[in-house]
Model the fold of this input.
Amino acid sequence: MNKRNGILLTFVVLKFMLQYALVNETYELHRDEFLHLDQGNHLAWGFVSVPPLTSCISKVIYFFGNTLFWIRFFPALFGALTLVLVWKAVEELKGNLFALILAATALLFSVLLRLNILYQPNSLDVLCWTAFYFTFLKYINSTNSKWLYAGAFIFAIGFLNKYNIVFILIGLLPAILLTAQRPIFYKSAFYKAILMTLLLIAPNLWWQYVHHFPVFHHLKELTDTQLVNVSRLGFLKEQVLYFLGASFVLFAAFYALVFYVPFNKYRVFLWSFCITLAVFIYLKAKGYYAIGLYPIYLAFGSVYLGEVLKGTRTRANYWRIACILLPFLFFIPMYNTAFPNKSPAYILEHPDTYRALGLLKWEDGKDHALPQDFADMLGWKELADKVDLAFSTLPEREPTLVLCDNYGQAGAINYYKKTKQMTAVSFNADYIHWMELDKKYVNLIRIKNYGEVAEELRTTSPLFVSTTIADSVVNPYAREFGTTIFIFRKARIDVNERIRQEIATYGNY
Done:
């Protein structure tokens, strides 16, 4: 193993170690993780919430035992591969050893440490953006059509993982028209690559068509409930924070793409960045949607700084050391706030720092006691254990429906449950398609959000012979605090028919 590969391996190992070390043992999985894991039990070419690839990865996790180690492993792996690709991009740009170390350090101590904690499509999304840009970089340098096909394959993988990757083309295709790379549109390989992509994603497109394009309903719901609370200024603020310690590397990249002569042929990357970011701003996208834009530019900036600071002069050595140290030094204060490595009690004792960084603001636009993602990693096992206990009080011969208010509740119960015959569902997200209507339900265990107890008693109690409030989530730090467990016994109605009626009200998605 040569020196460069040894250094790269060191960065990869450090990446994995940090990903496992940055989560306090107090925290459980995030609500989104439970949904994605449950999708592994229902493999399909599409889902209401995400494309199908995540479910396949979940199936692999189940094969390895469905343990926390493997759930954490895959996002860490995708983050490590992103680091490797940036390293390879620096090599492709003829960067020196300093440039390689700088790019790896800048990426390691960035927002990816936070992103790669959770098992969500986002980590693979950033990897696919970086890989796609890397293949285009290789194509520019070689004009070899094989890189167009490689890019087509990567785009298809990215599309089957998260539709967000469509924005990479929204930015790149106009950028190609504006630069010297426009002859690509005259190549037959370009259109063959497009056809290849369409063939690879066709099963998911067909699934969307058959199910009346639920992705558009999901986007509308997202816009109405979450993006409406997103400000364009807040979006830009988040962009600065994501790579704060490496901001000088990004500025160097943009400067070099404009003024550094050896980078003239790569100017398409500058236009692509500007157009894509402008579209995100116009659409009031969530800040993290744009994270995939940045890794490739860390490569450009590092290579340029490697040339500027090249030499053996003492002053140059000091500047090189300072550049490598800066991302780490900025990471130190972020270590204390941006990661779920502090207990809820600690955060409640030190709220000012979190509030100043906007970390206490949830998607409802209001400040809360904990960051939303942290609160979404608490109370789930408590809920599942209490539902298990409630289920055990009912006769086995009487089929019981476990109906939740949201996908996080249903996914957590299914993940932690001890009673195999119990399966939780919801009219929320993908669970609406997973109702087991072949059973003639007699009883109902209803998991209801905090603050809706009276309404549930008023509307549901008359439909059953008896009603019991079994328990509730008492962890005050959990987002699910106060979520209540009802037991409704002996239905007076046809529960299955009522379920069908409720599903019908949600439309074909």
